[in-house]
Amino acid sequence: MTSQISPDQNTSRLAAMHALKVLDSGSEKVYDEITQLTADLCEAPVCLISLVEKDRQWFKSEVGLGISETTIEQSICAHAIRQDGYLEVHDTHLDPRTVGNSLCQGDKPFRFYAGAILRTLDGWPLGTLCVLDYKPRKLTGIQRRVLQVHANSVTRHLEFTKALMNRAVSINYPATQDDVIPTEEEQLYENTKTLFETLTPREKEVLNLIAGQSQSLTSKQIAMELGISFRTVHHHRAHIMNKMEVASVAELITVCIKAQVFS
Predict the structure, then answer these.
(1) Which secondary structure element, helix H or strand E, spans residue 204, and what is its range?
(2) pLDDT means per 10 residues in the chain (263 residues)?
(3) CA 171 to CA 214: how far, in whole Å?
(4) Which of 172, 221, 223, 234 has its Cβ near the most Cβ atoms within 10 Å?
């Protein structure tokens, strides 16, 4: 079923998306594993976690495409978010929504699209987890289920990360570090502290800006705050997660909160 999104609703939808602070962030293993597994199970050469902004669609994770965003005019996902939960286009050359799309034309056109909606807990459609192919086709029932279940996993992880960021900003740490730590968390505390000390001063600064006690900034905001390039922020984020031995920002914030490493 198709639903219309009014200008006011789209404003609220975009606000909900921006509140997640995920746009233009670096790659995270947890999302990349979802897109790769979805591509494999759906037997599709391309899989995307696509967030639909006003003038573009941006990919939190992608398999097989090689770019991080496209214009909104090239976005099939912009049509998908007007559906209740799912859109499948068996042949893009036969569907009026896609026949004129430049990505569906040329020497290697996309001829198939299937997307499951990424929807917030408040019901706002952010974009899709989608698969594309260079030939007309249909997904099997199991493949459609895979797409929808994995889309729900992406949304839950985005919401969880947002909640952790908000907690990191608002939490009141004790004035000293002398408090007794529960025995079962002692090893985590020590390991996290040890890994944290391997970060460079700049990496610690970036970590605190991602989700420290005072604020939670996007990658673009961090670049402006520190006077460095957007690409450099991406490199710092990747190095931080590698050194801290975590697969996602959510996991990074969780271990840092428990070990009280934020300043």
Answers:
(1) helix 201-211
(2) 69 92 88 97 98 95 95 95 92 96 95 96 94 97 97 94 78 51 60 85 86 68 86 87 84 78 64
(3) 9
(4) 223
- Whether the CB-CB separation of 222 and 209 falls below 8 Å is answered with yes
CA distance 79 to 197: 47
Which architecture does CATH list for 7-167? 2-Layer Sandwich (3.30)
Residues β-bridged to residue 63: 47
What are the φ/ψ torsions at residue 46 (nearest 5 degrees)? -130, 135
Q: Which residue has the tokens 């976005």?
A: 75
The CATH number of domain 172-259, selected from 3.40.50.300, 3.40.50.1370, 1.10.10.10, 3.40.1190.10 = 1.10.10.10
Query: Helices (H) and strands (E) in the chain — how many of each?
Result: 9, 6
Could you tell me the pTM of the whole model? 0.81
